[in-house]
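Chain X:
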Amino acid sequence: MVDANRPGRTLAGRDDELRRLAARLSPGAPGQGSVIVVRGQSGIGKSSLLDTALAALTDTVVCRGAGVPGEGAAASRELLARLRRAGAPVSDPDDFAAWYEGFAAWAGGQPAIVLAVDDVQWCDEPTLRWLSLIARHATRLPVRMILVRSAADGPDGVAERLADLESWYGTEVLDLGPLPAEAVASLAREAVGSEPGEAFVRHCVEQSGGNPLLLREMLDELGKVAAGVAPVAGSAAGAALIHSLFTGIPDYARSVATAIAVLGGQDLSLVARLAKVPARTAGTAVDLLRSQHILAQEGFSFRHDPVREGLLDALDPAELGRWRRTAAILLSDAAGSPEEVAEHLLELGELDSWMVDLLRDAASCACDRGAPWDALRYLRPAAAARPSDAGLAVQLAETVALLEPDSGFDLLRRALELQQDPSDRARAAVKLGRAALVARRCGTAVTVLDRVLTVLGGEVDQQLRIHLEGLLCLVGIEDRDSLPKLDTRIQPRTGDGPEAVVDARHLAVCAVVAALDGTRPREAAEWAMRAIRGYTPTTDDSAVSSAVLALLLTDEVDVARNELTRAIELVPAQRSEYLAFRGLLGHWCGDLATAAADAGQAYALSRRAEGRTGGVVPRIALATVAAQQGDTSKAMKLLREADSPQLWDHTVMRPWFQLVDARVHWAAGDREAALKLFHRCGESLADVGIANPLLAPWWFEGACLLAGEGEFEAAAELAAEGAEPAARWGTPRAVGMSRLATAVATRGPDRIALIEEAAGILAGSPARLEEALAEFHLGHALVEAGDTAAARVRLRRCVELSLRTGDRFLLRRAQRTAAEAGIPSEVSPLDSLSPAERHIARLAGRGISNRVIAERLFVTVRTIETHLTSVYRKLRITGRGELAVIVGHVDDRPVLLEGAR
């Protein structure tokens, strides 16, 4: 294999990576994994790997571009130019929709197309958006995309766009690591012309870190070594290297080089002060070091890291400590960033008091930039130097909790015991409560927080006490065993209205308690709305879940969705759980496509961070959608993954898990187990005093399923379980579901009227899935009564709702019922669209461009793109080609219900 950038040299140690690329890029490769991202540090061989992989391709249109610092659009211009030369009808990347259809037609006629972008981190945000659009739209085309990136910071917005593209399900990430020893030996053999000795290879690995660029620079410029003759191992090797390089160089120049090695590249005045030479002398030394190829020609960095390391190794530990201490003082006096100074302090054995304070400041800076792992590097030596510092112990524990919630929670418990001041103790307890919600240690936290509140008495500020009480209640609600202990704290006081409570956490508690109690929907909604207006998720998101649950149960779904979206954007640490909750909300409202997308993304995120609270909720959310769509095996697998001690302590998710589990067992044909699970779900709710009939409506699910099997008496018993609670809660969803459960369990002439009444009530609620189910049962009942004309209307309405919600399972049931009754139906696939979407879909399906459609309708092109994205999602298609087929089919003739004769 020949490295294209270095003719005559072998590309060593990358056989596995080349095979992976060949499998993805060659003609006929499977469609999944249409984007490959190659990542690695500078000099690790990314571009050489790309050169070799592309050179090996045959019968493939290869279009390659490269990002250029300061010229973000360079790559897109180069790619478009190469595509045009290859015959593709492409134009301005900003007008993607205008040329993509022609591009897709051209691409479909090619054996394979590879779009390669080197240094993609230097591309601008529009270029990455354009690449992302191609990747997502071209999944069924023979188009592969390979993006090469390093860790360098590119233009604003690029890092986030790259992260989104890397997390897309169609992307495969290939991380290039250091070369193995065998590959280093191969390159050394090429350099010295004969077989190198084992010790020499080991030395090369240690000094270069397996970086091909640094290794070759070492072999080329630091001198060839005789075959099999190794440098002296360890620090002596570094000393020998330094001695060789600095022979004949004045002592002042070596002092300047040492100062640069310690400071890591600073302005000349600091280097001069650390080296204890005049600034003019330091400048002369830098020029000399550059002329000897020791320093790079620009800035204050060494051409080779081994030289810097050798200078530092040549100092004895005490002397090196003095250099670093002086460097830290100079940087601090020069107003250097806390993290910059901290890097020098980490190398010291003993820390002064001011150094500990500075390490704490550096840790705060690291957390602010989203790097808690760096914060821990600063805090651990600080805590070792000052073990009795209560504030430092809390800071360390809180930082650990960001990375390891369980360990952080335990550290916070210990730090709490160090607090002497009542207010500090209360604030530490607040941090412990928030950590408990993430680590799912709610039962333990309730005991600790309750004890703290009892001991504090009236010694702290009233607002802080109210904050702590509200947090205690929020934590307690999450743990089913703690609810009885907190009954007096959790229950709103008699006569308390929404206006009597001011703390956001207490408001959320009042809202969720009123909702779970199933008695005061108006107050629950108002409390919840006031709660979400009273906190900022970036500083404290502890009330989000409770407030959203109350809003959900009171059918304030738009407010709940907006709050979850806000939390998803502002609280990255909890993004998995909030995405899962939004997926459950989508299911609740009958938008299964969005629900599946949110739950799927939450599941993917949770698998990257096992052990966090997101592990249970995303699995249950995804299982809920899978069960609704009839994918029993997938739902059962996800439920088994979620079945854990975390789940069984969860107040809300445990009964919902049992409800979904019952659905899955019923679908799998295990009716006996399903009925037991339905009843167990009801018992779980009763055990913790949850009386709201909607949280996990086991009675409704069981009644409808039993009635469908003709077991009307058993169905009526279950329907009766929910009748009184539903009437007491009184929302249209609750009343409509109760009436439907009673109606399907009824035999005789009143059955049709009762189901029709239930369908009418559900139509006035967000319960689209339940409304569709009511229309199905009404159509089925009318078929049995012989009224096929009326049945046709109701079954058509069921099909329309099922298309809109994405409930394929109910759609098939409705189609089968209509077919068995011999009822044809003029149901169009476009009926699931809104009027605006339907109109735009018809125009686009006839080949009219987005720009022309926008001009006709007096809207922007972006508006048309947004509508078409929604159309593709609802119709489950990927582009205009499929849309044209559907529109042509609809325009020619009506679509009959599946199976109609």
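Chain Y:
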Amino acid sequence: MTPEGKAREIINRMLNESGWEIVNRDNYSPKLSAVAIEEGLLKGNLEADYLLFINGKAIGVLEAKREEHRLSDTVIKQAERYVRRLPSWCSYWYHPLPIVYLSNGKEILFKNRNNPDENYTAVSRIHSPKEIVKMLGIEDYYAGLPTLQKKGLRACQYEAITELESSFRLGQSRALMVLATGSGKTFTACMAAYRLLSYTPMKKVLFLVDRNNLGRQAEGEFGTFRLTETGEPLNTIFTTERLKSAKIPKDANVIISTIQRLFALLTGQELDDNDNDESNNEDDNEIQLGGKLNLPPDFFDLIIIDECHRSIYGNWRQVLEYFKSAKMIGLTATPAPETQAFFNNNCIVNYTLEKSIADGINVDYRVYRIKTQTTESGGAIKEGENITQITKYSGKTEDVKNSVEKTYTSTELNRSIVNPSQIKLILETYRDAIYTELYPDRAAQLEYIPKTLIFALNDAHATNIVRIAKEIFPNQSENFVQKITYSAGDSNQLIRSFRNDKDFRIAVTVTLVATGTDVKPLEVIMFMRDVESDSLYIQMKGRGVRTIGDEQLRNVTPNAISKDLFFLVDAVGVTEHEMQVTRPGGEFSSPNMALKILLERITHGDLPDDNLRLLASRLSRINIKSDDQQRQKFTDLAGIEIKDLAVQIFNVLEGDSLEPFIDINQSNLVRKGLVKALAHNPKARQYLLELNDGFIAILQPGEDNLIEKGFSIEEAQKTTQAFEEYINTHKDEIEALRIIYNNTNAPITYGMLKDLREKLVQISNKFNPVLLWNTYSILDPTHVVSFRSKDEKDALTNIIQLVRFAFKKVPELRSLSSTAASRFELWCGQNQRPLTEAQKEIIRNVVNYIVANGSCTMNDIKEEDKPLVVQMIGNFGSADAVNTAIISLSQFILKAA
């Protein structure tokens, strides 16, 4: 390296350490925050060694010399000439440029020319952008942001932060980050909060979560985030508080809260530190803010909204929009058109689940279908059959005999009808498939079945699943199967236990674990409820995509090998129909008033047209879903049929004969007369509430039959057919394919295999070698040998075997790792010059490298393990002999058997 090159290397490092990105003229972009342009062009074809820019505007120059070159007056004059020669097409903060550095890599001289009396002074380092902004008094909110370093960040996180900061600098006030589940949304949010608090005037950040247990999770992540300037945790640099009471500490910089808690704080309500923060306001109307509020509208500088497809919508949007001056960042894996609109269609990164799987950040899934007669077609409750009837409103349970034969549809199943035999059959089918079809290579230990998350329709359904699962998996620990719902106790502790405990194998939930919750050892997701919403379905599937290290997995699942994919067990057909793109926040309850509140209001005389119309609508709906016996009981209590009461109210409203409703203090006699049957009859109101909530009939014991079970052969055939079409089409143009197809025994190198793998996963994430291997095993299990270890699974040469199998070059799909030891012995025996025992033992170390990476030479091994190469040369006598042996061994290990 030349002396000038050495000096430049040192100067580049100093610039980087101070937050400046170094680019050449061709790679400059105004969206970069702090840039040093090498050989920056000036007037008269002059070039500054480094031309410094902040936020797209020139701010100074750095003149570089080799180490032995003294930083003399001549160098000073040269640099000061440059600060006046900025081209007319360059933006600048001041002209002439105020900042001048001179450096030879060993010393640095600095001058701020805005201080004319100041001389050049020696400094130990180059100033950061923030220091220069403060020094010059530049009033630009984002000018102090240093260049983001890529180290410690995934590519999608780096893109998200750089695009976010660029977006804010350009004047956008809202930005949407679409990041797949498992790609590190909260980590990205921590980085954004840290940089904006550190390098801009921002002082307070609100991190908004949609459930309090996710707030606890976020609080932990802010505490472990260390990608800071000093390496200290973020929460020791900036005070981080999860909102637990109706007061925010004055020194708090990061506040973590649900929107419901924020509303309670604003309006002066008491706060309890519990997990049940998803409930809406009691009458389900849109929240309205008024009167004196406890926080000013400019209290927060930045609001980061996690799972923003939910929390920014529904009844609570007014709370969020109260903070008008705050910048807003939305985080979601499942945006909808309304989500995009809320963030002004400013989507700064779109990192999909498919991309994350292709990048190896997440794992893909395989569908295992279970079809039963009852699930598909419903059934019948015979006359005289014993059933247990539960009144949902009161929880009252009674055993009765069914009086009239009644059929029920599949949609009524587990809503108003529970057939224990259906639940039992699904769970038995799953149990029997675990070690025969899903994980045939694991020791068949029921106490260590893969961690399984079951989505139930409602809390009662979840309770039944837990009860029956304990029968299907007998003699297990008390914690083997548990419910994680709001009624089950401390959901935070239950989620932690499910994540970490060996004896907690099956969790049953409704929606509490559907979004945001991180359980990396989870390997099976079972749908025992259907889902219509596309965003909710993606979120629910997303619980299974997380990757986990083999040792970590075995800590909780001792008989596991590795997590290459997860299984989606579909017991209801959720994978077989189109999903609907629902209104964001669609998981929130309806904005209509709850019936209980409505009845209370009409009883007190609150009878405007809207309340009467809503009551009539509710009565009509209840009438339709009730049977004759239930309708008659209401008539006996109220003295009028449900249908007649509804029609009566509708007719009066449509006749436009009602006197206007001013307030409840008026007589309103006609209006009161319309609802007298309910207002004067508490028992009728009570029964109406019971009819509205409905009844659950539990069959004793019920019956069901299995129709079908197993993986989708059709899906597997489509995948392998597409793969085989691709490699046939490209076998002459992609070098690795050409060599394998023609069986030339030419070297198939690491670079070739990596290039082929990248091309395959770009076409389809289902062409990931591990998934393809699994797909072929579904179609032809007798000729596909499963992986025995993580090293075997991760070997790049598995691509060679997949292609050979697809080209029909080999009779079975078996990894080279499984045959490497025997092929090594064969190679040793066939070697023209017999190897000594020492030579044989030392070159044996190369076998695993070949299997993992492909053909290699001595230089490849040298880069990986230099001492090994030195030993081999000592044993073989020369570098040429070692290289010849390694190339020969590579060819022998990799050639088709």
